[in-house]
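Can't paste images in this forum, so I'm doing it all in text. The chain is below; anyone willing to post the predicted structure tokens underneath?
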Amino acid sequence: MPSNPLNATGWDALAETKFYMGQLDEAAADGRKALEMNPDVWPGAILLSKIYLMQGRPQDALAEIELVRFDATRVWLSSIAYHALGREKESDAALSESIEKYHANDAYEIAEVYAFRHQSDNAFEWLDRAYAKRDSGLISTKVNPLFNSLHNDPRYTALLKKLNLPA
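Text version of the structure:
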């Protein structure tokens, strides 16, 4: 429980921690509690949609994604959810839009899409772009479950070393 149980931000931070620890059911419960307390809590619906995706609940993720206010974020999350639902045309269209419109700031997120889709070469290409831009998302690379498909690739270990994270 967060130090202040009436603080939505604390519940959301707890949900994010549990997400990265792989405690997805608890993370979802804490994320929902945070959103009930404050629908605008950060990252709120973004985090809950990623939790649902990792739980294999892409339809629930889509419902949360619709609540995301940032176009760029909504597009890359949609590309993952559509892929998980087997709706490849929609997934490809969303990914193309993400690359076309948001590539300058969202290299890390685009890498997440490719990793989720098990397209390792593309994922590492976009992770290299994120590294070149010093993307702040890289700090979570080691614990980000969207990168699980990359763990057995030697490029992943090399990336962790480059990021000065334990392999």
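The mean pLDDT is 95. The first helix runs from residue 8 to 21.
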